[in-house]
Amino acid sequence: MKKIAFIGLGTMGKPMAANLLKKGFAVTVYNRSPEKAVELVPLGAAVAGTPAEAVQDAEAVITMLSNDAAVLDAVLGSGGIAQVVQPGQTVIDCSTVSPETSQQLHAALAERAVEFLDAPVTGSKPQAEAGILAFMVGGSHAAAENMRPVFEAMGSKLIYLGQSGSGSYAKLANNTMVAINALSLVEGLSIVTKAGIDAEQFLQIVQSGGANSRITEMKSGKILNRDFSSQFSLQLMLKDLLLANRVTGQFQLPSPMLKAATGVFQMGLGKGLGEEDLSAIVQCYEEWMNMQVGHKASGLERRRSTRVQLDIPLHLTVHQWEQEGSFTGQTIEGTLVDLSDSGIQIVSSIPLSMDMFVVIHFPQEAELPPVTARVIRIESDSSGGGKFRYGCMLSGLAPYVRLKIETYIESKL
């Protein structure tokens, strides 16, 4: 059996190393927090004090780390494995990193006659524990085949994709789909929750038709059971989405769904959910609709919008359409008086029209950009004085802007 050095014993790395030990490989492990390495000693692992120490006499070196910086430091940094690897060794990086990082490591190790494979995985902690991960591999085909017994000890499938960086490109595309599928699950559950429909019955429908997905099977139970223990953390998903955005930018490829998903996960990170499972993103939706997903609301509750009374002065730029195909505008004073999950209400003495667009300028202290809204309801204000109360729907609002608005308004309560 091959001698393996395994660097990085986090959520995924630890069970992957454990499976190698159970399959009879000689494994030396390294982790920045040594207690995780010590936990594998009963299975037969040797513990190294540095990455460089771990790779001595190893035929294969596996890294499973959190981001590009960690991988680059472990391989090329001071005390990194590049200083001690020998011709004929193979380095396998199972981390999710940018293709540029994979290609940089491939080139650096090739100078030392060392093979490098970028081999990120599909699956999360349960699949890692069960040894059924799938590896998407870029680099030398011969090297990938030589390492097949190592891959098969940790997973059920090896898919060779081509030259260095191919595995990393595929992983970012895969995780883009995972994030979008996760949000589709959460949005569907949010809709039925607001409608008062039993979430478990709804999931039976989903799992019987075209809306079903692996993410539904893996995450719906965690959502309904309020189990946000991390199988794959929200902050790591966001890291991958940001890397995917870099790739689509380099390709000049429009990716509206990727960008929307990235914005929502940025909001989740802003809410402090980064270390929880990516399914914790449901808590953003629950805050927006003032309900817990899976909670059965009564008809009265479904129709009632929880409102927060406010008194925030605003400047409004009112835009009107001219027959010549242009806009004219004027600036008026207004007051933000109500906020709910369905929009905002503004009071002003200036008469506006239905479907008119206004640009809302918050006080300078809010440090908010102008926000566009459409007038969808007009009422006389109960306080009198010839004022009007306008129900406005926010349009084209970036998720991070919504979060900043909510934070600012909370500071005024």
Whole-number average pLDDT? 90
Beta strands, count: 15
Net shape: elongated
Catalogue the unreliable spans: 297-306
The main sheet orders its strands as 3-2-1-4-5-6
- The N- and C-terminal alpha carbons lie at a distance of 65 Å
CATH-level-2 architecture of the largest domain: 3-Layer(aba) Sandwich
Proportion of residues in extended strands = 15-25%
Query: Which structural class matches the secondary elements?
Result: alpha/beta
**Which CATH class of the largest domain?**
Alpha Beta
CATH fold annotation of the largest domain: Rossmann fold
Q: Count structural domains.
A: 3
Provide structural commentary.
The model is unreliable at 297-306 (pLDDT under 50). This protein has 16 helices and 15 strands. The chain is elongated and about 85 Å long. It is an alpha/beta fold. Helices cover 41% and strands 23% of the residues. It has helices spanning 13-22, 34-38, 51-54, 68-76, 99-110, 125-130, 141-146, 148-154, 166-195, 199-206, 214-224, 234-251, 256-270, 282-289, 299-303, 399-412; strands at 3-7, 26-30, 46-47, 60-63, 90-93, 115-118, 121-122, 133-138, 155-162, 308-321, 327-340, 343-348, 357-361, 371-380, 388-394. The protein has 3 domains: 3-164, NAD(P)-binding Rossmann-like Domain (Rossmann fold, 3-Layer(aba) Sandwich), CATH 3.40.50.720; 170-301, N-(1-d-carboxylethyl)-l-norvaline Dehydrogenase, domain 2 (Orthogonal Bundle); 308-412, Beta Barrel (Thrombin, subunit H). The strands form 3 sheets. The protein has a 6-stranded parallel β-sheet, sandwiched between helices.
